[in-house]
């Protein structure tokens, strides 16, 4: 829901409303239903609106409460806004709208930065206090909604997308060498506060930052799941029931809207379970959507057999979307433009093309994103079973990273190499922290609080919001995540991964769906880099811009172009696509 932007100055100058206006306009796709600007001295706010809750103009943003001395912009949804509004009314607050944004404003006035502890939902927000000139930025627990920052000694700017910051100007667009190392190690994922550009950072997930009028600031991380067993152990049946009940609640919460809510139905366990729970709660003929591509390299390009099975079982209003190869190259270019950061997963293109079609039918969808990270569904989790806690980092890196540090010397140009293994060090430092019982618990904490935020979660937000489509993720309900974190490792690893979730689903879904091999959004032509896609990649990597940037060794690029399938990362990522995607993104957004 929406895109926000703003600026706070520290040099006694008034905020640059023109720059905030350019950022706001750059996010038109995120919020096609309206826009607004507000400024007061050194602070300015901008907003693009996607109307989901309270469709009237009373819910327009920036929302200014003159009585409380607050102005706010908000992106996301507070699923418990009705309960909070009732509580705040009992405390004496009056409401002029039915929006969750106004609830956020009153909640901030009552609880200050601690308001985030009362929120159930996905959110990024900025609240300006007119009196003291203080600005508070906040982001939800799982980082579902993004917030990018660009700052120097004179000002700080922020926006829901990185390209919006670029539209304002004044951003250092040099390549961050540490982020480049992460990109090449973690299949394009840059975790934490960094981005591929030296001049842009992210507010981390589960973080509130309070910025004073003089430019000093404090950051507070307000949430992290405890990956530790409960004091009173439960049996397997109790865990299954608890997981299903928590997911049932999460799905119900995400039906809060004043517009219809559909489902992205891949036919896998996670999205199918969402459909089943909606049917259980009386949702009649919800709109469901699946996408498929042409086969390539011996790989099937769709999973319609499974999604059709689920759609028939629960009587959904199902939409099959098949994308011919003739549309794929254009879809790739459009997806790259929609990316706030370069993302190598072919799922990006699938989500982008799917979202464009879905947005013609509904404004809100639920998605199964996040279940694999929360319930240990990936193939790099089982090797961690029984591994000593001190061996967690080595075991995880062996399975998860694309290539070891020393291997980058044959790919990156010498000027962009680092002496130390910064990506390995990041993993080792995170996994060495106390508070997780086992090696698997420590890795699941890393995945849930860092890796997931900057890959599948970011991917879903970018690609859906590029078409004014809001995606909601029940598996990232923070209470469900807390429950899963406490669940014994053996229950999650059972059945090839997500065992406790599969067992919970057996009474609701066909066995063919529960026990099927794990699938992904299949886009075979990208995995194999052929045809028009190969032409796009070749043009990008041999362009003047690429030569001037000089990120990669020319001899290595030439070998890859001569044999596009010759080199795959340990995780299966096509290396030519990894290099080409980065250069395509840089050229799309920097020229």
TrEMBL record:
> Which spans of this chain does the record mark as coiled coil?
none
Reactions that this protein is recorded to catalyse: L-aspartate + L-glutamine + ATP + H2O = L-asparagine + L-glutamate + AMP + diphosphate + H(+)
Q: In which pathway does it act?
A: Amino-acid biosynthesis; L-asparagine biosynthesis; L-asparagine from L-aspartate (L-Gln route): step 1/1
Q: Write down the CDD domains for this protein, in alphabetical order.
A: Asn_synthase_B_C, AsnB
All residue ranges annotated as the Glutamine amidotransferase type-2 domain in the record: 2-214
Q: Which family, according to UniProt?
A: Belongs to the asparagine synthetase family.
Q: Which InterPro entries match?
A: Asn_synth_AEB, Asn_synthase, ASN_synthetase/amidase, AsnB_N, Asparagine_synth, GATase_2_dom
What's this protein's name? Answer: asparagine synthase (glutamine-hydrolyzing)
* Organism in which the protein naturally occurs: Nonomuraea harbinensis
Task: Give the NCBIfam families listed for this entry.
Answer: asn_synth_AEB, trio_amidotrans
UniProt lineage: Bacteria, Bacillati, Actinomycetota, Actinomycetes, Streptosporangiales
Q: Which domain of life is it from?
A: Bacteria
Q: What is its EC number?
A: 6.3.5.4
**From which residue to which does the signal peptide run?**
none
Protein's UniProt keywords contain ATP-binding:
yes
* Keywords from the UniProt entry: Amino-acid biosynthesis, Asparagine biosynthesis, ATP-binding, Glutamine amidotransferase, Nucleotide-binding
């Amino acid at each position: 829901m929406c895109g926000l932007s703003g600026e706070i100055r520290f040099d006694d100058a008034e905020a640059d409303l023109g720059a905030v206006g350019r950022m706001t306009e750059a996010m038109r796709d995120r919020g096609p239903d309206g826009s607004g600007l507000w400024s007061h001295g050194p602070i300015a706010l901008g907003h693009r609106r996607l109307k989901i809750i309270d469709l009237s103009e009373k819910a327009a943003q920036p929302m200014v409460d003159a009585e409380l001395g607050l102005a706010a912009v908000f992106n996301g949804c507070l699923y418990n806004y009705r309960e909070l509004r009732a509580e705040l009314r009992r405390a004496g607050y009056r409401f002029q709208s039915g929006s969750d944004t106004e609830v956020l404003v009153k909640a901030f006035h009552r609880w200050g930065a601690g308001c985030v502890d009362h929120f159930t939902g996905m959110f990024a927000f900025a609240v300006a206090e007119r009196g003291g000139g203080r600005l508070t930025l906040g982001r939800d627990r799982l980082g579902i909604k993004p917030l990018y920052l660009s700052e120097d000694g004179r000002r700080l700017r922020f926006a829901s997308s990185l390209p919006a910051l670029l539209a304002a100007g004044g951003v250092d667009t040099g390549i961050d060498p540490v982020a480049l190392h992460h990109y090449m190690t973690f299949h394009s994922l840059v975790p934490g506060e960094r981005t591929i550009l030296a001049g842009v950072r992210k507010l981390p997930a589960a973080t509130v930052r309070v910025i004073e009028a003089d430019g000093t600031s404090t950051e507070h991380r307000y949430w992290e799941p405890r990956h530790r067993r409960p004091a009173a152990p439960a049996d397997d049946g109790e865990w299954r029931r608890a997981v299903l009940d928590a997911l049932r609640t999460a799905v119900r919460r995400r039906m809060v809207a004043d517009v219809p809510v559909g489902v992205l139905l891949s036919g896998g366990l996670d999205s199918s379970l969402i459909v089943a729970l909606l049917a259980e709660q009386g949702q009649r003929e919800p709109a469901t959507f699946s996408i498929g591509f042409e086969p390539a390299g011996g790989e099937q390009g769709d999973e319609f057999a499974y999604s059709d099975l689920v759609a028939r079982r629960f009587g959904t209003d199902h939409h099959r979307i098949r994308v011919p190869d003739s549309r794929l190259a254009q879809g790739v270019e459009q997806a790259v433009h929609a990316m706030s950061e370069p993302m190598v997963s072919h799922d990006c293109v699938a989500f982008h093309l799917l979202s464009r079609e879905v947005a013609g039918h509904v404004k809100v969808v639920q998605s199964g994103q996040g279940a694999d990270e929360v319930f240990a569904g990936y193939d790099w989790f089982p090797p961690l079973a029984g591994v000593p806690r001190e061996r967690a980092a080595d075991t995880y890196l062996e399975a998860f990273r694309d290539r070891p540090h020393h291997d980058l010397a044959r790919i990156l140009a010498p000027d962009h190499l680092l002496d130390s293994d910064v990506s390995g060090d990041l993993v080792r430092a995170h996994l060495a922290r106390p508070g997780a019982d086992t090696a698997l618990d420590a890795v699941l904490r890393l995945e849930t609080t860092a890796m997931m935020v900057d890959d599948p979660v970011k991917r879903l937000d970018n690609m859906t919001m590029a078409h004014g489509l809001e995606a909601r993720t029940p598996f990232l309900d923070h209470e469900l995540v807390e429950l899963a974190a406490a669940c014994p490792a053996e229950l999650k690893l059972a059945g090839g991964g997500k065992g406790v979730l599969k067992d919970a689903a057996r009474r609701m879904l066909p066995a063919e769906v529960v026990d099927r091999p794990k699938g992904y959004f299949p886009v075979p032509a990208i995995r194999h880099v052929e045809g028009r896609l190969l032409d796009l990649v070749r043009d990008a990597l041999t362009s003047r811009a690429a030569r001037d940037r000089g990120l990669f060794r020319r001899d290595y690029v030439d070998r890859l172009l001569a044999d596009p399938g010759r080199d795959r990362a340990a995780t299966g990522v096509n290396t030519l696509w990894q290099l080409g995607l980065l250069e395509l993104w840089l050229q799309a957004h920097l020229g």
